[in-house]
Design a protein that fits this description.
- It holds the Pfam family PcrB.
- Keywords: Lipid biosynthesis, Lipid metabolism, Magnesium, Metal-binding, Phospholipid biosynthesis, Phospholipid metabolism, Transferase.
- By secondary structure, the protein is α/β, with parallel strands linked by helices.
- It has a single domain, classed as TIM Barrel, CATH 3.20.20.
- The protein is built from 9 helices and 8 strands.
- It has an 8-stranded parallel beta barrel, surrounded by 5 helices.
- The longest helix has 14 residues.
- The structure holds ligand L4TTDIOY, SN-glycerol-1-phosphate and magnesium ion.
- Ligand L4TTDIOY binds next to strand 4, helix 3 and helix 4.
């Protein structure tokens, strides 16, 4: 399924983490709508290429979420490009993007590119620390970022990121109610069927990451729960 707007559940695989062939097959054949390859640290061309080749044995749509320029390679179905809206450092909002487009803009296939407006809310996660995200936000601040994403920047995706910790469903629901066009991704701390079902009610698409490496069966159970 290549219509991102229909995606309800995606797995995020970290190229910097080990996964066995058996577990990778279970993930790719799980019925998830797509697999995103991405992580904050230790993402290299070598480990991205290795994971891409292994995922390509299956039919599942495969996305590279770009975290650095060195690890970008052809062969993915889509490229998701994060911009961290609540970063205090404009490097993570626009500067890296400006440098990349200056260098590669004339050879990009824009149909494969999808921008993600991140709002990172877990202060201790790697992505928050790397990008110096301001996580001390009121609910109204978060909704304001969502409205900026939709109405000012017209971003296709607004991504509420709680990586490593389960977020606040009430806030996710509030953000969802504020968005009309922009697709709401929620990711962070989903480790049970109940959590997957709850966040799938609040967001358009849920992203399941770390539990893949902690308990594969719990990870697999999130797929059905999200689609119920
Ligand atoms: C060959 C081909 C297809 C060419 C295309 C041309 C090309 C080079 C296009 C690139 C164009 C472009 C504009 C690129 C952007 C460049 C860039 C580096 C942007 C910055 C991205 C950014 C803001 C990164 C910050 C970190 C971040 C938000 C990462 C997302 C992943 C994430 C949040 C992971 C969660 O953390 P995790 O690592 O899982 O944490 P744990 O390990 O603790 O679990
Ligand atoms: O790893 P977890 O905590 O499941 O979060 C998923 C994803 O949002 C990370 O970018
Ligand atoms: Mg992770």
């Amino acid at each position: 399924m290549y219509d991102i707007r229909q995606w309800r559940h995606v797995f995020k695989l970290d190229p910097n983490k080990e996964i066995s062939d058996e577990h990778l097959e279970l993930i790719c054949e799980s019925g998830t709508d797509a697999v995103i390859v991405g992580g904050t640290d230790g993402v290299t061309l070598e480990n991205v290429l290795e994971l891409l080749a292994r995922i390509r044995r299956f039919q599942v749509p495969c996305v590279l979420e770009i975290s650095n320029l060195e690890s970008v390679t052809p062969g993915f179905d889509f490229y998701f490009i994060p911009t961290v809206l609540n970063s205090r450092d404009k490097k993570w909002i626009i500067d890296l993007h400006h440098g990349a487009i200056k260098q590669f803009g004339d050879m990009m296939n824009w149909d494969e590119i999808c921008m993600e407006g991140y709002c990172i809310l877990h202060k201790d996660c790697k992505a928050a620390m790397l990008t110096d995200a301001n996580t001390e936000l009121e609910e109204d601040d978060v909704v304001a970022y969502a409205l900026i994403a939709e109405h000012m920047y017209r971003l296709p995706i607004f991504y509420l990121e709680y990586s490593g910790s389960y977020g606040n469903p009430r806030l996710v629901q509030r953000v969802k109610q504020a968005l009309k066009q922009t697709q709401l991704f929620y990711g962070g701390g989903i480790a049970t069927e109940a959590q997957a079902a709850e966040m799938a009610q609040c967001a358009d698409t849920i992203v399941v990451g770390n539990v893949i490496y902690e308990d594969i069966h719990k990870a697999l159970a999130t797929v059905k729960a999200a689609k119920r």
